[in-house]
Automatic annotation (TrEMBL):
GO cellular component, one term: membrane
Keywords: Membrane, Transmembrane, Transmembrane helix
Domain EamA: 7-141, 151-286
Keyword Membrane: yes
InterPro entries per UniProt: EamA_dom, EmrE-like
Organism: Labilibaculum antarcticum
Spans through the membrane: 9-27, 39-57, 69-91, 97-118, 127-146, 152-171, 183-205, 211-233, 245-263, 269-286
Protein name: EamA family transporter
One protein family per Pfam: EamA
Transmembrane helix in keyword set: yes
Domain of life per record: Bacteria
PANTHER family for this protein: ACYL-MALONYL CONDENSING ENZYME-RELATED, SOLUTE CARRIER FAMILY 35 MEMBER G2-RELATED
């Protein structure tokens, strides 16, 4: 039998790998003439259909209470919508490797706030793992010779802040009472509606996508949205938000490995050292077997009438 901690670790690592494919699909879709808002509208719409069909097949109830809806609304708007929008914007200004590096400020934010909100212990092992992962991720993007765009850098950093909010919100004990598939259904549905409104009133809705663009978006929706989100949320139940965010530093490695095996990029000493550092940080987190206890997220920020629901 696989232990709960090990099971959660495997789920989060697989989620990180699938998330790591996101820049590839996004950039390919941009080349087909899509803007950020339309890409994300189609992405979350397809993901909503996928998770909806799955819930029907598994007979999973989508029913939630008012408190859960309030938390999911925060997760969808402040987390999913704003995280993906700002990150995908950064891809238009800076390289995907640099964007991923800057986006990964979120483990720092998550660990700090997980300690404050959920009383997760900020141990020496976590500090070491965090430092190693940051150095490793930085090595993956530094030295490419590309000019750094300030706007792209800011968007990528903001995306990390929003994603930390998303992780902390999804770790709330109230949301852990319901199926992760129900959570994903609501988050994808709300996010799709938010981007639909933005496209309808601001950017315009793209009604004639090419076959190739639909191919890339469908892959983005399945691998880097539906499957990765469900795996991350389920894994986080066992590992805790701080450990989950550290394990997710495996995500940028996916882009490197795709470049080596698909596009025949050369694996230099810098990339090899970066991979070693990140894998070491993941190994350190895996050795942390004590499951953290949680407190209610945003308890003081939640309206009193919702807390009674």
């Amino acid at each position: 039998m696989i232990g709960a901690q090990t099971k959660g670790t495997i789920m989060v690592l697989l989620s990180a790998i699938f998330f790591g494919l996101m820049p590839f699909f996004a950039i390919k879709t941009y080349a087909e003439g899509f803007d950020v808002s339309n890409l994300l509208f189609y992405r979350f719409s397809f993901a909503f259909v996928l998770i909806g069909l799955f819930c029907i097949y598994k007979k999973i109830s989508p029913r939630i209470n008012k408190k859960q809806f309030f938390l999911l609304l925060i997760a969808a708007f402040g987390g999913t919508m704003m995280t993906t929008y700002t990150l995908f914007l950064s891809y238009q200004y800076i390289s995907s490797g640099l964007a991923s590096t800057l986006h990964f400020v979120y483990p720092i934010i998550t660990i700090v706030f997980a300690g404050i909100i959920y009383k997760e212990k900020f141990t020496a092992k976590k500090i070491i793992a965090l430092v190693l992962s940051i150095i490793g991720i930085a090595l993956l993007s530094v030295g490419g010779g590309a000019e750094i765009n300030t706007i792209g850098v800011l968007w990528a950093l903001v995306s990390g802040l929003f994603y930390a909010i998303y992780i902390l919100c999804m770790a709330n004990p109230e949301l852990r009472k319901i199926s992760p598939y129900s959570v994903a259904l609501w988050v994808f549905g709300i996010t799709a509606l938010l981007f639909f409104g933005k496209c309808l009133f601001v950017d315009g809705i793209k009604t004639n996508p090419s076959a190739m663009s639909l191919f890339y978006i469908l892959n983005l929706s399945f691998w880097s949205t539906f499957l990765s989100v469900v795996l991350f949320y389920k894994g986080m139940k066992y590992t805790g938000p701080g450990n989950a965010s550290l394990l997710s530093t495996l995500e940028p490695l996916t882009g490197v490995m795709v470049g080596v095996f698909v596009f025949n990029d050369v694996m230099d000493l810098k990339s090899s050292l970066a991979i070693l550092l990140i894998l070491t940080s993941v190994f350190i987190v895996v050795q942390t077997n004590k499951k953290p206890k949680y407190r209610m997220l945003f308890r003081k920020l939640t309206p009193r009438r919702l807390r009674r629901a």
